[in-house]
Write a structure and sequence with these properties.
- This protein is an all-beta fold.
- The chain is about 0% helix and about 45% strand.
- A 7-stranded mixed sheet has the order 42-40-46-47-37-39-43, with no helix packed on it. The chain has a 4-stranded antiparallel sheet with strand order 3-2-1-24. It has a 4-stranded antiparallel sheet with strand order 4-5-6-7, with no helix packed on it.
Amino acid sequence: MVRVGIALPFVFTAVFAANCTDEPTRPRVPLKPSAQVAAAASRIAFSSNRDGSYQIYVMDADGSAATRLTSLPGQNSEPSWAPDGRHIAFVSTQDGNYEIYVMDADGATPTRLTTNVAVDAEPSWSPDGQRLAFVSTRDGRERIYVMNADGSAQTRLTDGPGSDTDPSWSPDGQRIAFWSNRDAHSEIYVMNADGSAQTKLTSDPADYTPRWSPDGLHIAFGCNRGGGNLDICGMAPDGSAETALTSAAGSNSQPSWSPDAQQIAFTSTRDGNSEIYVINADGSGPTRLTNSPGEDVQPSWSPGQVTRGALAFVTQPPPTVESGVTLSPPVQVAVQDSSGNTVSGATDAVTVALGENPGAATLTGTTTVGAANGIATFTDLRVDRPGSGYTLVATAAVFARATSTPFTVFTQHTLAFVTQPPAATAANAALTPAVQVAIQDSLGQRVTGATDTVTLVLGSNSTGAILLGTTTVPAVNGVATFSDLRVDRPGAGYVLVASGSRLVAATSTPFSAHVTFAAVDAGLAETCGVSRDGAAYCWGGGQTSPAPVPGGITFTKISAGDSHTCGVATSGAAYCWGSNDYGQLGNGTMTSTTAPVPVVGGLTFATLSAGGFHTCGITPAGAAYCWGRNSSGQLGDGTTSCVNTGCGRARPAPVLVERSIGSISAGFSHSCGVTVDGAAMCWGDNESGQLGDGTTVTRWVPAPVVAQPNFATVTAGYYYTCGLTREGAAYCWGTKDQTVPTAVAGGLTFTILSAGFGHTCGVVTTHAAYCWGDNSEGQLGDGTTNNELSPVPVSGGLSLAELDTGGFHTCGMTLSGVATCWGANVFGQLGDGTTTSSSTPVQVVQ
């Protein structure tokens, strides 16, 4: 017995040394005809530690189809079949102590029968299945007890001076055999089922483990007749006619009779390890049934169950099936009579389990179903691991079991990238060469006939990029080709993930998508840029890296304002998007939109400038137009009338200026422009002198900037304005004590000038950048947050081709098209993938 609480003389049969010689299973000898019937109709339960701890297993009587029944904690041993073949009693330490349990014959619903701080073990069923005899140490020694099959009415039967153990019922249920050392030696005894008339049958030095034959004519037991080995002996129920049935080397013990009394299964170490053997009842034909590296012990033969017929697979499992996929068509098992005819009215419960299990798989789904008109149908069976040679075994009470034809379980086909995406590609451009994904078998070979549909998606990425193009295609000859894939925005570390129904997914090698910018423009808390191929991107407002502007419009210029953006398409048409509370989108409505909408009026523009809540533009002929908020006359049409709600115009209005305008700039609530002959003029709010006319009087029409040099461009900030002469000199005006242009200190020669909320930046002839003014967020880019009254160089030594100031940040573009930004970044307006502000330039994700 496999336990450590009772030191009984035959315990060694369960704890033989693990270092055994796994000799090949001996050739099985032909069984007697009656023994063959028993083998076909019954099984043998046994205990084994082949998988670690001791668990209960069951196998066919010829040793095949060994199946594990329990996977319980602790040690689980000493199986004993119920007479009806539907239950198995056993001993388990799963709850910390040796107790007796009972479970269904398929291992389901283990139920505890005893609860005792001592050891309860060695269960033996009465022939009517109503009671269990067992051994317990609850009274200090091993004693024989009996209880009802549900664990109730536990009663002690023996109380001798020694240990009484291993009870075995006679087939008529009237007597119980056991062995005891009460007379100083281990001998076989017999008593009435109520414990009376206890009588010794043997008088030899060592006799153990009696087992009554099903026909009541014999008792098999373990015997030691002084030869050093424990053998199987047999005798009549009165102790006479004792015969040795084994004489092989090693120890032979724990006999168990076949239901027809023609064979005896037992445990033997004759081949170096504890294994299960079988002999004919006369001792002939010894045959090894198990051959595992662990200890296989304590066989218990199930009762014969051939009286009502047999089971038969009428729909076999398919020859091949994918792991984890339902067996189809559904497996069907017929309940048949002894003549092989389906019993049409049978409703018996039929259970299927894995017999041969080469992959150590698990059978899932509904494995027990009731027959309908004699047929049990299993609609959702699945096997979870690949392997070749699986079989199903069907069982039902009082019917001979059936074994299916063998079948193979294979793994899913897998996907593999055979043409990877290029290591680097342009954003929003087709991946070239075309990405290709192959469908492969478990050996990595292309499945040439496969036509499965394959889908590609972008793996997780921090930029929120979207994969565009045809992302789902069917395979042709096992290969899916994706000819027009593109990633909509720049970023690094992108991967493609290929998937398909019942296909193992694959992931591509990483790749990056890049943008080369032609222009960038900084708004209040957003930045936008146009790539060299005319694609527009914006970032900020919570988007920390460039995201494409929807609509697919090709732009030549772009301008970001406080909360809206406008651009000029290649056709010259103007488009705007964003907030539209004052009609600043110019589409004739006050409805905001996230996608570009065309500015109405049929005008074409050479350039546009988005300000606080209004927009201005110049046509190729030099005509100026503005639209949006007009509360201070910033549209320059001579009015501040509230044509629309919120004092705004939702359509372009001509600026009242007689000369052609060469450049224009929209500030927060004022606007400025320069005529083609170099005259600067401004209109709108003038509270801070930002119009440069020497006053603080608001102007509804353009007023000339006084004392002005010959300007090339002007740039309108929030409450001030700066201008750049044709010679590159910078001037600014707009603080109440500077209502006319004042030269910027430092004597630098600029080619670009841009005014923001409270800071100004420019690019000099060497392409170096300089900034001055408010530096609370590092928007001057000099590595500090110190305000400056005169230009300071931007850190990093960048050579810039473009530069623009926003609310509290600045952005530029290098000569090679690399966008870079610095300053406030709480909304992601620097575009570097973070929301961390920086007082030095950081590269935009591109």
